[in-house]
Amino acid sequence: MQAKLIALDWGTSSLRAYKLGAGGEVLEQRSLPLGVMQLPQAPHPVNGHPGSDGFELAFEQACGDWLNSHHDVPVIACGMVGSAQGWREAPYCETPTDATRLASTLQRVRSKRGIDVHIVPGVIQRSPLPNVMRGEETQVLGVLHALPPQAQAELLIGLPGSHSKWVQVVNGRIAHFDTFMTGEVFAVLSQHSILGRTQQPGSGFDGQAFDRGVQVALSVHGESGVLSTLFSARSLGLTGELSGAAQVDYLSGLLIGHELAALAHVQRQRRGDAQLPALVLVGNAELCSRYRRALGACGFTQVSLAEQATEQGLWQLAMAAGLITCPLPR
Amino acid sequence: MQAKLIALDWGTSSLRAYKLGAGGEVLEQRSLPLGVMQLPQAPHPVNGHPGSDGFELAFEQACGDWLNSHHDVPVIACGMVGSAQGWREAPYCETPTDATRLASTLQRVRSKRGIDVHIVPGVIQRSPLPNVMRGEETQVLGVLHALPPQAQAELLIGLPGSHSKWVQVVNGRIAHFDTFMTGEVFAVLSQHSILGRTQQPGSGFDGQAFDRGVQVALSVHGESGVLSTLFSARSLGLTGELSGAAQVDYLSGLLIGHELAALAHVQRQRRGDAQLPALVLVGNAELCSRYRRALGACGFTQVSLAEQATEQGLWQLAMAAGLITCPLPR
């Protein structure tokens, strides 16, 4: 089937490539460990010429064969590839923003094979504590496209990860967002702090330990803040009340619980309403399932999951930028 | 001058030894990098016999020559030397507790040279999130001894460190305490997270950056919790609003600010009173100076510093245990 767009989700550690058909459907996809912080180093011919630039080499590995078969198919990319350490810096768009605005500020880099790669800018919120994202804005657009207009009037979109983003959508635009470093804090504490020493990573997810951590964060003890409750992952181990095998998911629940308790608090303050907004989660399925479990405990009752958000977001941006024409009605 | 007591402050990474005179005054002191997690490994004669036990070897290095000169001087030790990984486990005393109770449960280990080492137990608080300490209880006793009885009626004693302890004293007894892992979280984030990558450790303390971090924690933005405000150490760098050189002390102020904001909140809740208690700080002078600065911003108006708390606490415990007799009035 004819390819209409090559879409790249190019982050810090990985590069995902999608070949999309006439209706935006995925014809073929690949995932390579060639993020902007781990580009190929060994020289290799690119389009018949000697090549040593890491971005060119990774680009060839990701989709060189597709471009050989489809010479004039447009290419779009989002993520850290547009950062100051990326292939070409795509300066941030300011909030509030939407697909039209983002699509009008794509940056182009001409690859050695003569094909332009269109790079999606990240988004910046210039609040007293500024917030930035790269890649998540594209996922948000993919989520929004799949929703009816009335659902886009007011919505919270959660993108859990090393740096979780919570994006407030108002009338189809990215109005505001918050960042929580929950995933990275979990990783560094487990790998490098005293809490990791007694953790015994087990065979599977321990839901009971996870829920216990969430409940501690939501309890009166959680009012001491995460810097204090963290120590319970050790002290409950010392008193024999928490096994080494349970400590990993207890810590995960504790951190996610603190994140979501703060999120619920801030949402209620901002909205001046005890009612929490409807929410869509996007990302790694296992992580989204943890967040969904904890969100219920925190009072978020309307939670759904979105899939294929990145490739659909890139498709929408390519259309808005005129790189591809509107597909036929399906 | 005649030695009356050898007092050891034996923690995870270091071993401090004090030779104390008839009034508890320090005649001589040493600090060795021989904590219970880094004991000597090379065999060496102990009291004329081959020795390979790490505790025996460290003990000899710390005070073997003192014991050669003063055969019958008693020895007392506090800290991780009494943990399950220590020389001899000294089971925790439960809160509430005081010098009399702690002194009545010293554990003895007979060293190869025939001298008993008396080990101070740690303290445990069996609350739903238990709390434990080893070594800090001795410092608290040293602080209390230097105060008039009326000041011991109600007092908060802060021991900043990797795991900061905040000990509530009521009528001269350790009634309650909290732990915050602030120091260790600062260390692992600076050494192993993305926040460390842009930090440029400078030549000295940047008070302005530190105060800025404290103010963020205390501001409305701090309500999102530390997992969220942490990201500002990166995003303010990206927007050019925080230099790499300022990021270290900004992060320090941010974390200490979150710790103290939570402490003030919990203190007010527990006391049912907006007034915060008088407070004494003990520990590393540079760290205590940071905490003192931030405590003022958090509404703690009566803050003083204590010195020589460990050696004076060990002296008090040795007296309470009858290892030494009351000194002559000075």
Oligomer: homodimer
Number of contiguous helices of chain A: 11
Query: What's the CATH topology name of the largest domain in chain A?
Result: Nucleotidyltransferase, domain 5
Q: Note the overall shape of chain A.
A: globular
Identify the most extensive interface between protein chains.
A-B, 47 and 47 residues
Properties at a glance:
five-stranded mixed sheet; 2-dehydro-3-deoxygalactonokinase (chains A, B); six-stranded mixed sheet; 330 residues; Nucleotidyltransferase, domain 5; alpha/beta; homodimer; 37% helix; DGOK (chains A, B); 11 helices; 2 domains; globular
Structural summary, described in words:
- The first copy, chain A, is an alpha/beta fold and 330 residues long.
- Chain A has two domains: 5-135 and 312-320, 2-Layer Sandwich (Nucleotidyltransferase, domain 5); 181-299, Nucleotidyltransferase, domain 5 (2-Layer Sandwich).
- Chain A has helices at 54-69, 99-103, 136-145, 182-192, 194-197, 207-218, 226-229, 232-238, 244-271, 285-297, 309-320, and strands at residues 5-10, 15-20, 26-32, 44-46, 49-51, 75-78, 93-94, 107-110, 116-119, 123-125, 131-133, 154-159, 164-170, 173-180, 279-282, 303-306.
- In chain A, the strands form four sheets. Chain A has a six-stranded mixed β-sheet, with helices on both faces.
- The longest helix of chain A is centred in the C-terminal third of the chain and has 28 residues, at 244-271.
- The mean pLDDT of chain A is 94.
